[in-house]
Amino acid sequence: MKRLFYVATVLIALAGCQGKEEPNPELEALKAEKEAIAKEAASKDSTINSFMESLNEIEDNLSQVKQKQGAIKSSSTEGGAELQGSAKDRINEDINFINELMEENKSKIASLQSRLKKSNLKIAEFEKMITRMTEQLAEKDKEIGTLKEQMAAMNIQIGEMNTSITNLQGESAGKTQVIEQQTVKMNTAFYAVGTYKELRDNRVTNKEGGFLGLGKKKILKSDFNQDYFTQVDISKIKSIPVNGKNAKVITNHPTNSYKLEMDGKKKVKSLTITNSETFWRSSKYLVITIDN
Question: Does residue 257 lie in a domain region?
Fold first, then answer.
């Protein structure tokens, strides 16, 4: 029985030895080399993809620069000597945008050259592409320089034109001011309301005509005191306050161009102008006498 147990133990030990493989140094080295190659390939692919992305961005920027150049030339050609205002602002914005894109491109090219050098990748096609891009940027710089010179010359012309426009605007403003002053003057009138004694004492009216002191008419003095009058705008005023008894208009105003608004039998509340043009045509001064 003891012998049988010993044999079984030996057999189990032998079986365990057969399932366990011995380490193979050559195989492990091949696996490590394979992983290193895969890692290097992945790194190269990542670097190449990054290079391609940067080159595509530079090409896209150059395309946008070309479009903006065309837009600027089109605006300046269409506007010609009349280019100003919003068109001029738009051109300046486009030029600033071009400057930003070109600075971005130069920065990307410098970064590509540095990264390619550090990567130790000897890819002739990439080097050619970067060289070509650098040449394109240099050529585009020349085109933009010429465009800026043209815009600078145009700005001088615009400045001269703006000076002329400013002068014209000044003349126009002066004429407008004169017209406004004339309009104000045409629409300005004056009125005075009071008893004969008040108007006489304030050098507004006097009496003349008649015979032996009888039948004299109240009239506006030739050298009347203008400070006693109230100034009004005839384009706006339609009613003159009176508030007195037996009101009479002693200046020359057609009776069909106004009416007296009564407040009771004798007291006149106001004078309403029914036809402003006719009312003020003969005189811009209105004098109304009232009784106490």
Answer: yes
